[in-house]
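HOLO CASE FILE
Compound: 2KA
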Amino acid sequence: MFGKNPKRPPENTDGSLLFVQEIFPTIQAEGIFAGRPAIFIRLGGCNLACSFCDTEFENFSQMSLEDILAQVQKHQVQYSKINLIVITGGEPMRQNIIPLCNKLHKNFTVQIETNGTIYRNLPDFVKVICSPKIVNGKYTIPADGLQIDALKFLISASLEHYNKIPDWAFDFKEIFIQPMDEQDAQKNAANNALAVKIAMENNLKLSIQMHKFLQIP
Ligand SMILES: Nc1nc2[nH]cc(C(=O)O)c2c(=O)[nH]1
Ligand code: SF4
Ligand SMILES: [Mg+2]
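Model generated. Tokens follow.
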């Protein structure tokens, strides 16, 4: 969170054990499935350390796929109709999530939230939302071969480089513009205004973090 995390490299395991921060039901607040109830699996660790990162992902513990599925099933007791799983982080592609995706596919639409810097040969059914980040003054271009369903750009009026969509992005079929939450009312107001301007000028969809407005996870 807030760039204070260690940058953790990709883990190349068989995917039968994963580092998990939290498994919780909520409303998917961002991107193509915004508004849809979902069970979130937040995985531990990230390979980047963004100064504005709003997420705690370093209190993770190792879980087997069976334990993860059992926790998902526990939430299904209360929310039996939910049919969307969101795997996020941290950076979920840091770990081998392919076996987990395959198991979840039987009962759920599976969507991941990734910064796009790590390649994995994900099954075609996985919906990938990629939010590129600035590294060395430039947006990271999604890893070669990664199948992406939508890009999501965070917009800040004050943080360097986060005020413009890179030209390469327009080759992708769907782009969301999302005001960055900088935990500061004045900055956030400027971020909202700039995000609306960029969305309007480029005919792109706006994504707002509705869970913060709703005060849900
Ligand atoms: N409600 C809710 N929706 C989200 N969509 C993406 C999130 C993320 O942290 O990746 C997120 C999150 O943290 N909460
Ligand atoms: S890539 Fe995402 S999860 Fe990782 S540090 Fe940046 S904002 Fe946080
Ligand atoms: Mg979040």
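CASE NOTES: The mean pLDDT is 97. The first strand starts at residue 17 and ends at 27.
CLOSED: yes
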